[in-house]
Amino acid sequence: MSRYVLDAGAALAFFKMEPGFEKVREILGEAGEGRSRVFISAVNLGEVYYIVGRESGRDKAEKAVGFLEQIGCRVAADRELSLSAAGLKLTRKLPYADAHAAALAIREKAVLVAKDGDFESIEDDVKVQWLVPSK
Question: How far apart are CA 28 and CA 68, in angstroms?
Answer without folding.
Answer: 8
